[in-house]
UniProtKB/TrEMBL annotation:
Keywords: Carbohydrate metabolism, Chitin degradation, Polysaccharide degradation. Residues 38-97 form the Chitin-binding type-2 domain. InterPro entries: Chitin-bd_dom, Chitin-bd_dom_sf. It catalyses: Random endo-hydrolysis of N-acetyl-beta-D-glucosaminide (1->4)-beta-linkages in chitin and chitodextrins. PROSITE patterns: CHIT_BIND_II. Signal peptide: none annotated. Coiled coil: none annotated. This is chitinase. Its EC number is 3.2.1.14. Gene3D superfamilies: Chitin binding domain (2.170.140.10). It comes from the Eukaryota.
Length: 100
């Protein structure tokens, strides 16, 4: 049992701490987005509410998270789950920027 805990602890240290905190906590108060037994986010890709140019990927039943970055000039489009040009977002999205 101690070896299993140690292996999980070492694995968790190699992941972005912001992403780990997000996957472990963000979905707890959102219906149908978390595992009922832990409250962790469902496996999947999520917008970063603090940064338009990055996003989080939660996996291992939400116990592990990684932060990924869009290429320069692109932002996370949560509707299509891709990095996209800011002018392709809905105009009411906080990351939207009109084409200049």
């Amino acid at each position: 049992m101690k070896l299993l805990f140690l292996a999980a602890f070492v694995q968790a240290q190699n992941h972005d701490q912001e992403a780990m905190a997000f996957c472990n906590n963000y979905c707890q108060d959102k219906p149908d987005t978390h595992y009922p037994d832990t409250g962790f986010c469902l496996n999947g890709t999520y917008l970063n509410p603090k940064d338009c140019s990055s996003y989080f990927r939660c996996w291992e039943r939400g116990s592990v998270g990684d932060k990924l970055f869009c290429p320069i000039g692109l932002v996370w489009n949560d509707e299509y789950k891709i990095c996209d040009w800011p002018y392709n977002l809905d105009s009411d999205d906080e990351c939207y920027e009109p084409l200049k």
